[in-house]
Automatic annotation (TrEMBL), chain A:
It holds the Pfam family E1_dh. It is found in: Mitochondrion matrix. The lineage of its organism: Eukaryota, Metazoa, Chordata, Craniata, Vertebrata. CDD domains: TPP_E1_PDC_ADC_BCADC (cd02000). The gene is pdha1b. Signal peptide: none annotated. This is Pyruvate dehydrogenase E1 component subunit alpha.
TrEMBL record, chain B:
Its main location: mitochondrion. Keywords: Carbohydrate metabolism, Glucose metabolism, Metal-binding, Mitochondrion, Oxidoreductase, Potassium, Pyruvate, Thiamine pyrophosphate, Transit peptide. This is Pyruvate dehydrogenase E1 component subunit beta. It is an enzyme of class 1 (oxidoreductase). It comes from Cyclopterus lumpus.
């Protein structure tokens, strides 16, 4: 329980940029049973704060000290200019969202504090570097099987997490590493799961598409299956009356699945507090949206369910829209669909070069004009909210964190063979499992 | 007298009757009582499926539950199996304990991905982080005159999947005890009922009338002791085997009838112990022969100590290897009849 509180606290810190002490989360801790020993592994190592620079004036320390302890994430940052130099908060114009069956729309302006900005930057950059490291490890054949990378889409995961509570729920498809991180799992546990080691979030038994965390239901390999699951999680929220929502994500490829429409129907009928999010990255594997869907207005595809179409490359836009959507659900109005227009730099998976169905120019154009991390950084720099050096230092720290995580992921041992048959059943007596031949009787414990 | 009064009071509106001081209950009412008791005991339990609420259940198994528990606990769904099964599994992941009813298991095929990939495999894939406490229940196998698409037996298909428990009750007591166990189990359980058994009354023991009466999953029951041949069977065919045994007893052949109760995990030890006593094995089921429950039992017996005790190869009595026809004469000849069981036993015993 305490470990779970720490994990939730860490996730909250990561997003809000403050070291929030959550005293009692008993209303957040729900009945999903988690084996206690594994909780110890979910504690993320918070990134070590960069050392205080020689020119850092005392006033700068005050900024960090005022919110919390210095050893938490997002609290102390090197400043080579004094605090008085930086704008602590700014308001930005964000793109208007198209709406479907809605009288109101998310706001056209978003407020961003310096702390928040640095935090969003940190998280997005961590996801970016983590995915690029996974790319590297896959090419070295240290990661095998499926590997679907999220770089380019960071604003979606970070924006959503910024707008919901750790006690809300989230479920996505197979492009899940980013969400696994934003929902509270350490980079090293994610990479170790990809490399199939015992220190992985699922002890090496799940792999890329099957990572879980408190209030995060994976990581699902079957296209579209996660959407009815998400509606079911929302049903549990409604049933338990806990004012939580479930964010249920899917891609433009899954948007045509029949089971989605079955889920939409029941969610609307029963007014389930479910935010259905379509991450439209323009390609379902190698098929562009125009070639797959008769209607590419994914935010309208829920028909009787209201929808919003959002610029998914802008973390602030995503955050504001998600807030709007979550409020809609929490007020008992039923489900809502959010289409995030985003882009993935990598191909569908590591076995797809990603250039047979789209041009390198297109990828380059998105990278140069709409990269979510660059956009945030430029916004902050041009509004004097942070310095170039600060960002560099954050980058260095993240690189180090990811490097160490990769070290762990390549050196941690594989799961022991004794683990082979464990975790078949929850809360059950040990049982015998047949091996490859009749003389091999393996043991399974819950 | 006291037993029958108690039985009446306990059952409330449930149809039952008492005869000579014994309490009798039909299978459907035993299932109803099991769900009623578990709904009362644990707030997280709820039932969803087509026509389970206001219609009182397509086969009246959930009669009276909606009136008692209301919309929140007893939910009518649209005819969208894949959707509502996924919703049920998601609800189980998030802390509830759903009972997901399939009007028949034939329709579960539309949702089988959610049963296998989302429910059965998740605890393993997550290395124990995410459990799925759910029961999938409904009538399985042949009915009467419903044709090929509505008559398939799914015991073998579901039972081949690790991570699932597959239960197949026969009597009213089995139905009640096993359903309560299934609901209390923290894992996905496929609960295969039989439509033709719903209206059959069975004696309910004293013990089975308690609100905490459960039958452990994974243990078979010897319904009839015997010495000459072991009959391993499940669901409706337990009745057929007992009838066959009664006929053969007159000829001096004593059959031991094992009611499997659970298909996965199979209680192989019970079968082995019996075979080591009788030296002959006949499996009886309604499903298709290839890759079926009987096939699995035979393979396991061969791999275990009981093989050396067999005086003849094991025999499987199964449904005919065809889609179920409609015409009565054809349908009757598509499934094992008592005469087929008797014939197979005699062939196995070489008499």
């Amino acid at each position: 329980m305490k470990n779970m509180l720490t994990t939730i606290s860490n996730a909250l810190c990561r997003i809000t940029g403050r070291n929030v002490l959550l005293i009692d989360l008993s209303e957040y801790v729900n009945v999903t049973s988690l084996a206690t020993p594994t909780l110890a592994q979910t504690l993320r190592q918070p990134p070590k704060p960069p050392p205080v620079g020689p020119r850092a004036p005392a006033a700068a320390q005050l900024v960090s000290a005022q919110t919390d302890r210095l050893d938490g994430p997002g609290t102390s940052v090197v400043v080579s200019r004094s605090f008085a130099d930086f704008t602590s908060q700014a308001t930005f114009d964000i793109k208007k969202c198209d709406v479907h069956r809605l009288e109101e729309a998310p706001p056209l302006k978003a407020e961003l504090t310096r702390d928040q900005g640095l935090q969003y930057y940190r998280v997005m950059q961590t996801v970016r570097r983590m995915e690029l490291k996974a790319d590297q490890l896959y090419k070295q054949k240290i990661i095998r099987g499926f590997c679907h990378l999220y770089d380019g889409q960071e604003a979606c995961a970070v924006g959503i997490e910024a707008a919901i509570n750790p006690s809300d729920h989230l479920i996505t498809a197979y492009r899940a590493h980013g969400y696994t991180y934003t929902r509270g799992i350490a980079v090293k546990e994610i990479l170790a799961e990809l490399t199939g080691r015992k220190g992985g979030v699922a002890k090496g038994k799940g792999g890329s598409m099957h990572m879980y965390a408190p209030h995060f239901y994976g990581g699902n390999g079957i296209v579209g299956a996660q959407v009815p699951l998400g509606a079911g999680i929302a049903l549990a929220c409604q049933y338990q009356g806990n004012n939580q929502v479930c964010v249920s994500l899917y891609g433009d490829g899954a948007a045509n699945q029949g089971q989605l429409f079955e889920a939409f129907n029941m969610a609307a009928l029963w007014k389930l507090p479910c935010v259905f999010v379509c991450e439209n990255n323009k390609y379902g594997m190698g098929t562009s949206v125009e070639r797959a869907s008769a209607s590419t207005d994914y935010y309208k595809r829920g028909d009787y369910i209201p929808g919003i179409r959002v610029d998914g490359m802008d973390v602030l836009c995503v955050r504001e829209a998600t807030r709007f959507a979550a409020d809609h659900c929490r007020s008992g109005k039923g489900p809502i669909i959010m289409e995030l227009q985003t882009y993935r730099y990598h191909g569908h998976s590591m076995s797809d070069p990603g250039v047979s169905y789209r041009t390198r120019d297109e990828i380059q154009e998105v990278r140069s004009k709409s990269d979510p991390i660059t956009m945030l950084k430029e916004r902050m720099l041009s509004n004097n909210m942070a310095s170039v050096e600060e960002f560099k230092e954050i980058d260095v720290a993240i690189r180090k964190e990811v490097e160490e995580a990769a070290q762990f992921a390549t050196s941690d041992p594989e799961p022991p063979l004794e683990e082979l048959c464990n975790h078949l059943f929850s809360n059950d007596l040990p049982l015998e499992v047949r091996g490859t031949n009749p003389w091999v009787q393996l043991k399974s414990v819950s | 007298m006291a037993a029958s009064v108690r039985c009446f009071l306990r059952s409330g509106k449930v149809r039952h009757y008492s005869l000579n001081g014994y309490c009798y209950m039909m299978v459907r009412d035993a299932l109803n009582q099991a769900m009623d008791e578990e709904l009362e005991r644990d707030e997280r339990v709820f039932l969803l499926g087509e026509e389970v609420a206001q219609y009182d259940g397509a086969y009246k198994v959930s009669r009276g539950l909606w009136k008692k528990y209301g919309d929140k606990r007893i939910m009518d769904t649209p005819i969208t199996e894949m959707g509502f099964t996924g919703i049920a599994v998601g609800a189980a992941m998030a802390g509830l304990r759903p009972i997901c009813e399939f009007m028949t298991f034939n329709f579960s095929m539309q949702a089988i991905d959610q049963v296998i990939n989302s429910a059965a495999k998740t605890y393993y894939m997550s290395a124990g982080r995410q459990s799925v406490p759910i029961v999938f229940r409904g009538p399985n196998g042949a009915s009467a005159g419903v044709g090929a698409q509505h008559s398939q037996c799914f015991a073998a298909w579901y039972a081949s999947c690790p991570g699932l428990k597959v239960v197949s009750p026969w009597s009213a007591e089995d139905a009640k005890g096993l359903l309560k166990s299934a609901i209390r189990d923290d894992n996905p359980v496929v609960f295969l009922e039989n439509e033709l058994m719903y209206g059959v009354p069975f004696e309910m023991s004293e013990e089975s009338q308690s609100k905490d009466f459960t039958i452990p999953i994974g243990k078979a029951k010897v319904e009839r002791q015997g010495t000459h041949v072991t009959l391993a069977t499940h669901s409706r065919y337990v009745s057929f085997c007992l009838d066959a045994a009664a006929v053969l007893a007159k000829e001096g052949i004593e059959c031991e009838v094992i009611n499997l109760r659970t298909i996965r995990p199979l209680d192989v030890e019970c079968i082995e112990t019996s075979v080591m006593k009788t030296n002959h094995l006949v499996t009886v089921e309604g499903g298709w022969p290839q890759f079926g429950v009987g096939a699995e039992i035979c393979a396991r017996i061969m791999e275990g100590p009981a093989f050396n005790y067999l005086d003849a190869p094991a025999t499987r009595v199964t449904g005919v290897d065809i889609p179920m026809p409609y015409a009565k004469i054809l349908e009757d000849n598509s499934l094992p009849q008592i005469k087929d069981i008797i014939f197979s036993i005699k062939k196995t015993l070489n008499v």
